[in-house]
From TrEMBL:
Coiled coil: none
Organism: Gillisia hiemivivida
Matches recorded under InterPro entries: NAD(P)-bd_dom_sf, Sc_DH/Rdtase_CS, SDR_fam
Keyword Oxidoreductase: yes
Pfam family, one: adh_short
Gene Ontology biological-process annotations: fatty acid elongation
Protein name: NADP-dependent 3-hydroxy acid dehydrogenase YdfG
Single GO MF descriptor: 3-hydroxypropionate dehydrogenase (NADP+) activity
Function in brief: NADP-dependent dehydrogenase with broad substrate specificity acting on 3-hydroxy acids. Catalyzes the NADP-dependent oxidation of L-allo-threonine to L-2-amino-3-keto-butyrate, which is spontaneously decarboxylated into aminoacetone. Also acts on D-threonine, L-serine, D-serine, D-3-hydroxyisobutyrate, L-3-hydroxyisobutyrate, D-glycerate and L-glycerate. Able to catalyze the reduction of the malonic semialdehyde to 3-hydroxypropionic acid.
Length: 249
């Protein structure tokens, strides 16, 4: 199914998976709403998208996914510009891995706020429109960390498991009644800025050598997986996409 002309909100669009996804989906003709906190990065991306012939349009709305009032801005801005909301990709996330014994409790809070509450805020914001129009697609970026523990990942893995299970609950409640599809995307290691949020020195020492020789996924691989989920016919809901680097255990 074509996504040409669809309106797609992407959180965390200022880098990595969000940025690659915005480029891919706009290339396929979708209009993309780019949101994150770094406005300069979003503006650069908008320019890049709109410089290409035949790409969809791009709208920049700076927002923090932990703030419900910012979502109000996203929804109002999107409806004003594009009239409908067809898809949200809840992608914004943090991964400050640390060992529990080191008690980086501020980082635990941040992960719960962004990785879990940020997704809940996004879903709550788009549902009134999607339920009214009786269609839509919610894509939540979970992780392979929802399926297995990584060193220093007790809290991060817990947040991504929450996203995966929330997605399944959403799908069961919304898809049959409202025709709203729900997909959980669960990647293994992707080269992005995500590891830059790690402050725990023990983890830095252990994780970096582990991934040094690994051929990781690229953000574009995840963008392709998202496009695959979005381009299925109405009757088919891709529930989960579990995508690992070939070399990763
Ligand atoms: P990046 O660090 O490149 O992207 C993270 C994005 O989240 C940035 O655009 C950042 O934008 C945004 N963000 C962070 N906090 C907030 C906030 N409070 N409000 C709004 N936006 C925020 O990493 P990835 O592209 O790798 O990560 C994207 C998603 O993919 C995350 O959910 C991550 O957990 C998940 N994932 C990543 C994997 C990987 O190996 N890289 C593997 C599996 C899942 P800004 O700072 O401008 O606000």
């Amino acid at each position: 199914m074509s996504i040409k002309g669809k309106t797609i909100i992407i959180t965390g669009a200022s880098s990595g998976i969000g940025e690659a996804t915005a480029l891919k989906l706009s290339k396929e003709g979708a209009n993309v709403v780019l949101t994150a906190r770094r406005e300069d990065k979003l503006k650069e991306l908008k320019k890049k998208i709109e410089a290409k012939k035949d790409h969809g349009k791009a709208l920049v709305i700076t927002a923090d996914v932990t703030k419900k009032q910012d979502y109000k801005k996203i929804i109002e801005g999107t409806l004003k510009e594009f009239k409908s909301i067809d898809v949200i990709i809840n992608n914004a996330g943090l991964m400050p891995l640390s060992y529990i014994k080191n008690l980086h409790t501020d980082e635990w809070d941040k992960m719960i706020d962004v990785n879990i509450k940020g997704v809940l805020n996004g879903v709550a914001a788009v549902l009134p429109s999607m339920m009214e129009q009786k269609s839509g697609h919610i894509i939540n970026i979970s992780s392979s960390a929802a399926r297995k523990y990584y060193p220093g990942g007790a809290v991060y893995c817990a947040t991504k498991s929450a996203v995966k299970m929330f997605s399944e609950g959403l799908r069961q409640e919304l898809a049959p009644t409202y025709g709203i599809k729900v997909t959980s995307i669960e990647p293994g290691f992707v080269s992005t800025e995500l590891t830059e949020t790690i402050t725990d020195e023990e983890i830095k020492k252990e994780l970096m050598p582990m991934v040094k020789d690994l051929t990781t996924l690229e953000a574009e691989d995840i963008a392709e997986a998202i496009y695959y989920a979005l381009s299925q016919p109405d009757r088919a809901n891709i529930n989960d996409v579990y995508i690992m680097p070939t070399e990763q255990k």
